[in-house]
């Protein structure tokens, strides 16, 4: 079961050499946006 996943990850790394850093930046941006939105909702409900 791990063979197709490994093959897909290898193909993705070859096609996008800057993939992991971009994915990390996107994940950080999205999590910061969600956290800020949640904080605004919490502050407005008080």
Automatic annotation (TrEMBL):
Keyword annotations from UniProtKB, A to Z: Membrane, Transmembrane, Transmembrane helix
Protein name per UniProt: Uncharacterized protein
Species whose genome carries this gene: Methylobacterium dankookense
TM segment ranges: 22-43
């Amino acid at each position: 079961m791990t063979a197709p996943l490994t093959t897909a990850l290898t193909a993705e790394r070859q096609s996008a050499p800057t993939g992991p850093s971009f994915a990390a930046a996107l994940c950080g941006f999205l999590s910061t946006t969600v956290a800020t939105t949640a904080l605004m909702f919490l502050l407005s409900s008080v």
